[in-house]
Design a protein that fits this description.
Length: 286
């Protein structure tokens, strides 16, 4: 096999070309908070995210085809089909949080969706809403309207991506809630294959591409604790870090607590032991 050619770096992932049709996505153990990558890694975080995404890809195949070809024995690398990615991030929100809450508080709307009056921060929405976004110059995602999304990829393609995104979110949110995790919102990235079919790509339904909240602590009316990153955020607040580069080193107890939360999310959602995944990552594909 020819050597993989490095195509690009995300904040916490690397992307390589294996050949004309296949890519390799490698999830590192890096962690970001308040948009800054911290100097301390969380051991196995990349394996948790890779295993979880693969678990969901297998279980959502009846809803939509996806790019997954294989998970490598290292547990952090995914071989995937090379797609023509759409320049639109397909965000679905089931709860009012983040920029959705900010927009609602200002205007009563989120990305053109008129919402009921009187909703509080973190309230569940009557129905999940599709709130597309684009990567702005700043590197931050910028919410756009359905009309703007249609201008970017075509009205039919947006309608298809919206329908599939909502179906994926409903399926995964219901599944996760039964296992004690609220998926407040999530971001899907789709591509188009050579046959022109819409295909789910990237990493889906992980704590890095979604807001996971512990269901047993859910209390709308304010922000919710993060299932995975709360120890990191609490530590950053405690030491008074200004939330600009560079980020602080994390002490061992914060690293261990955070790793435990990632592993716990994996085990709660998959019903598999994380040790079994480490021994043989293909357990998530069955
Ligand atoms: C994903 C990204 C990463 C940097 C391109 N199946 C696919 N086909 C074509 N392109 C992509 C995929 Cl997943 C693709 N990204 C996001 C991932 C590092 C950027 F690991 N960019």
């Amino acid at each position: 096999m020819a050597d993989a050619v490095h195509l690009g770096s995300g904040k916490v992932r690397e992307l390589y070309a294996l050949d004309d049709e296949r890519l390799l996505l490698v999830a590192s153990d890096r962690i970001s908070t308040f948009d800054v990558i911290l100097p301390t890694e969380i051991p196995d975080k990349g394996r948790v995210l890779t295993g979880l995404a693969a678990f969901w890809f297998v279980r959502t195949r009846a809803i939509t085809p996806n790019h997954l070809l294989a998970v490598r024995p290292d547990g952090r690398s995914t071989e995937c089909r090379r797609l023509e990615m759409l320049p639109v991030e397909c965000v679905v929100r089931g709860y009012l949080s983040g920029s959705g809450w900010k927009d609602y508080a200002k205007t009563g709307e989120v990305c053109g969706h008129r919402l009921p009056k009187g909703l509080r921060e973190s309230d569940r929405l009557p129905d999940p809403i599709f709130t597309p976004a684009t990567k702005a110059q700043s590197g931050h995602d910028e919410n756009i309207t359905g009309a703007q999304a249609a201008a970017l990829v075509g009205a039919e393609r947006v309608a298809e991506a919206e329908r599939v995104s909502i179906a994926l979110y409903r399926f995964a949110a219901a599944y996760a809630l039964e296992r004690g995790i609220i998926i407040a919102d999530t971001k899907f990235e789709f591509g188009v294959d050579r046959a022109g079919r819409l295909v789910l790509g990237d990493e889906a339904l992980t704590p890095d591409s979604s807001r996971f909240w512990p269901a047993d602590q859910y209390a709308p009316g304010g922000p919710q604790p993060s299932y995975d990153k709360q120890y990191v955020r609490d530590y950053c607040e405690k030491i008074g870090w200004g939330k600009t580069y560079p980020g602080p080193e994390l002490p061992p107890d914060v690293v261990a607590g955070t790793r435990r939360r990632y592993v716990e999310a994996f085990e709660q959602l998959t019903g598999l032991s994380f040790d079994a995944y480490l021994a043989n990552p293909s357990v998530v594909l069955k």
